[in-house]
């Protein structure tokens, strides 16, 4: 069963009397009256991270992926709660020391504070993070408009290549291997964008499951479609180098998730404002497509306007 089917069939009706739940069709809870924004994410070993050989890096990835749900909504994260299930091996004194040190580094970097959590014994390692922020308003999901431009922050694809390096499915030199694995464990979140995105974005989401999958989620309750220009999707110089060297397909690297960049739409008359903001605040914001009416088929086209199909559209939560 797909995640959306599960929510719609079993849980959506339970949230009807709670406006802040946003009909369980967004990544956050937003209590507008109390200006409270909350997100909850669970991460399991073997699914969201390969193993726990580098706990100091895994925990950074988990924290950043969690607070990115708030950042893409234009909300600065302030508090977080962390719960973990594991055994003596995963939560050894050495690992706990590494986890504590990394959490302290993340707190200093993002100005967030640990406020509680829970631990339980289990032979299956997992973490659940609750992130909290405060805001007068947020950028909602499913508020895109026909003829909106589609934008993305930063670069896409580095994280997926880092995952392939960790899985030993691709061989590259040590320096590039370190770069890509660092991008996998420590994505560059666009914290500076939070103060501005509400001024021009109609809708937004963070790219966790993949560009195409998350774009589908962003308009899943609307009668809309999209057209993406593959040539415009931004990638790093390092990823371009590997793609050219090994003759790889760009589409398969930018659509596999774990980028934690901000995907949003905006009216065409906002182009100048977005361009100035990008330059002034040194935030990379790239226009990569447009929103269309439902009657038109969603598509991804190359530089010759030929439609292309990715082998993998991203990660799907199935039960």
How does this model look, in words?
There is one protein chain. The protein has 319 residues and is an alpha+beta fold. It has two domains: 3-134, 2-Layer Sandwich (60s Ribosomal Protein L30, Chain: A), CATH 3.30.1330; 149-301, PurM-like C-terminal domain (Phosphoribosyl-aminoimidazole Synthetase, Chain A, domain 2). The protein has nine helices and eleven strands. It has helices at 3-11, 55-71, 93-110, 158-166, 174-185, 211-218, 237-246, 250-254, 271-281; strands at 29-31, 36-44, 77-86, 113-121, 126-134, 149-153, 201-206, 224-229, 262-266, 285-293, 299-301. The strands form two sheets. Strands 7-9-6-10-8-11 form a six-stranded mixed beta sheet, sandwiched between helices. A five-stranded mixed beta sheet has the order 1-2-5-3-4, covered by helices on one side. Helix 3 (93-110) links the parallel strand 3 (77-86) and strand 4. Helix 2 runs parallel beside helix 3 and helix 4 packs across helix 5 (174-185). The longest helix has 18 residues, at 93-110. It is globular and about 55 Å long. The termini are close together. The model has no long low-confidence stretch (mean pLDDT 94).
């Amino acid at each position: 069963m797909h995640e959306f089917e599960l929510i719609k069939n079993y849980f959506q009706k339970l949230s009807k009397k709670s406006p802040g739940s946003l009909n369980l069709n967004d990544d956050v809870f937003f209590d507008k009256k109390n200006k409270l924004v909350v997100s909850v994410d669970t991460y399991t070993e073997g699914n969201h991270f390969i193993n726990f050989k580098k706990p100091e890096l895994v925990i950074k990835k988990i924290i950043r992926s969690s607070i990115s749900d708030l950042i893409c909504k234009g909300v600065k994260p302030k508090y977080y709660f962390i719960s973990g299930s594991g055994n003596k091996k995963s939560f050894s004194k050495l690992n706990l020391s590494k986890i504590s040190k990394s959490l302290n580094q993340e707190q200093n970097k993002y100005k967030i504070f640990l406020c509680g959590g829970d631990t339980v014994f289990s032979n299956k390692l997992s973490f659940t993070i609750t992130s909290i922020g405060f805001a007068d308003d947020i950028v909602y999901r499913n508020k895109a408009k026909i003829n909106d431009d589609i934008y993305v922050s930063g670069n896409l694809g580095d994280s997926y290549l880092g995952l392939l390096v960790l899985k030993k499915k691709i061989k590259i030199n040590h320096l590039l291997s370190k770069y890509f694995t660092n991008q996998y464990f420590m994505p560059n979140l666009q914290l500076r964008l939070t103060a501005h995105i509400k001024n021009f974005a109609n809708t937004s989401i963070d790219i966790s499951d993949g560009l195409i999958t998350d774009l589908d989620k962003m308009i899943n309750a609307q009668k809309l479609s999209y057209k993406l220009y593959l040539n415009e999707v931004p990638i790093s110089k390092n990823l371009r180098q590997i793609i050219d060297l090994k003759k790889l397909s760009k589409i398969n690297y930018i659509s596999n998730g774990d980028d934690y960049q901000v995907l949003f739409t905006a009216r065409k008359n906002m182009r100048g404002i977005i361009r100035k903001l990008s330059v002034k605040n040194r935030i990379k914001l790239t226009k990569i497509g447009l929103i269309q009416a439902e009657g038109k088929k969603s598509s991804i086209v190359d530089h010759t306007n030929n439609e292309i199909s990715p082998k993998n559209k991203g990660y799907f939560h199935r039960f």
